[in-house]
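Re: How this chain folds, sequence and tokenised backbone to follow
Notation: Tokens come from a learned vocabulary of local backbone shapes, not from coordinates.
Start of record: The labelled sequence and token lines come straight after this line.
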Amino acid sequence: MKNLILRNTPDIADAFEIKEIEKENGCDVYEVYCENGKIVICGNCKISMAMGYYDYLRTYCGVNYSHCGNTQINVTEAPLFDGKLRRVIPQQKRAYFNYCTFGYSTAFWQWDRWEKEIDFMAMNGINMPLSVVGSEAVWYYTLRDFTYSEVGALRYLSGPGFWPWQLMTNIESYFSLTDVKYIESRVELGKKIIDRETELGMTPIQQGFSGMVPGSFSKLFKKLRLIMANSWCNFPVTYQLDPTSPVFKKFGTALLEKQKQLFGSYHYYACDPFHENEPTIKTKDYLWKVGRAIDGMYKDFDPDSVWVMQSWSLREKIVKAVPKGRLLVLDIDGSKHGITEEFWGHDFILGRIHSFGDRNTLHGSLKELAENNYSKVNAENCIGTGLFPEGIYQNPLYYDLAFDMLTRGESVNLDKWLESYAFRRYGSREDCLVQAVKMLEKSCYSEKCTGRETGSIIAARPGTEVRHTAPNDFRELRYSNKDLLAALRLLMQAEKAETDGYVFDVCDITRQVLSNYCSLLYDRVMEGFNTRELSTFERSCNTFLKICEELDELLQTRPELTLAKHLTDAGNLAVNEKDKENFELNLLTQITIWGPVLYTVNYDYAWKEWGGMIKTYYAKRWQSFFEKLALEFPHRGKFSTTTKKQHCERNIYRGNQFYKSYAEFERKWLSTANPEPPTDGDTLAIAKALIEKYGKAIEQ
């Protein structure tokens, strides 16, 4: 615990005294008070102590520690105080991370970034993180033990941007790995992560096994019958070992043993049979046998094992086959417990997902968070809470409250919480800042903004009818852009706000306001085109493209909001030049086509309004679309880009000649992308100029 304090607040590390206390009625607890000139932090465990430490920093040092701006804790003084900070944490387990987070947010992190995140987790009370970094090595060395060659084993493993989907049994061999040295580096990193997590008292959730293996596995065993799984999102089919077969247990146990050898064993093993897929064997008792077989494998390997299963695609017969106490269900979005008789009595964690694809759009209901759904669940087998976003690099206000609510047993007064947040986030008590965050709560963070995100029209693949940017998002703006602009104007009135979080938020909210305005401009473009109003058409096209250019300039002033920064991180993870190109292509493909390249239905799923991305990719697509409309403008026939077939109410990727030409541009971009580096431009000055330029038009 002292090392955590020293890492985060070295200037005041000597001001703290640490004491251990007992649990309260079986619950974790912390207390913070001052005694003999010291700040005394008491807790029943290191996580509780870390929470107490962070509560002190928030309450008396005005700290906001975030993924988006304010990414460092800058405290040089430790004020003493009267009274006591105290919290009893009713949630036994507090889980964190979605598999997708390891693709969209953490794929290219190295130890320095992971070290910060683990401290962040501890300070926010996380005691059960998903820990799958290094699982590539578990698979590689196990396949080698099963006679696979070095090249053969590497080829089976997907690259870092897509590895999580292989763990979820959706894909395999996508941007395959090429160098054993990378595997060795993952062992080193994964071990550091798990060692630090366990040092702080966390219980890692490790990877289990549900049956997916290479198709060539049939050559290793006589009379082995592999089950061909259905294609996921047009990717090539994968192969599944029947969990009831002896080979399943043999190979699965080998994986678990290799994982234990490399990283240790911590009793919780995650796997989801037939995730986003359907079992091909339809006999009446087959799913029950699957549940018994997987549980039996875990129990024989580790008598204290607990199977961790997502609620996303669980099946009743599998769940009911597992004895009570041997299964923990993660109710990823908090919606399944109510329709499954509280998971038929199995322990579960009430979760929240919020973000899909780490798309940087502002959304989410603060009121829903503040009301604390955990306090409303009347089920003894609900033993904790969890935060399971697909990505973490957006919505800093929403996530600050979401992390806070993970360890509360009651609701909070949202107005008071927002007042405190405004000071912690911006370092000033100016009333305009309080009013700004309250206006955010009435606009992009209102009760209407739950569920899927509103997609970015800028990032959408152009067409004459755009209903979605990504699968299952919305075009509808569920709040008034005028209200969001009003919040931004209030924020800009501040004279004493100088924190990094303030600069980030001005940039980010400006981005959102102008992105929302572009959605209106798109509608005007199509209105002008369809009614042959040339002035409306031209003016709207030109303004749309100009905003794209200016937004790119703004975002380039924030490195974390630039394509260049993320591309550099991807390349830096590599151990050789070939991997560098591979990892960079991992990132570029993930945020654009996703894949598979020719037949993708996930295109633009992980869109990002980033500097360098808007200018070189999104704006180019829109410019070519507007030029096409201009060519068609004089004609009386109705021009439409809509494809005959649709997937999730979106056009088929190469569904007609129009989109085949887009696919060629996108493919070429992947191999030629060379975004400009971040600039040292004045973020606040550029944002204010943009709002002065477009504010009146938005308010009309």
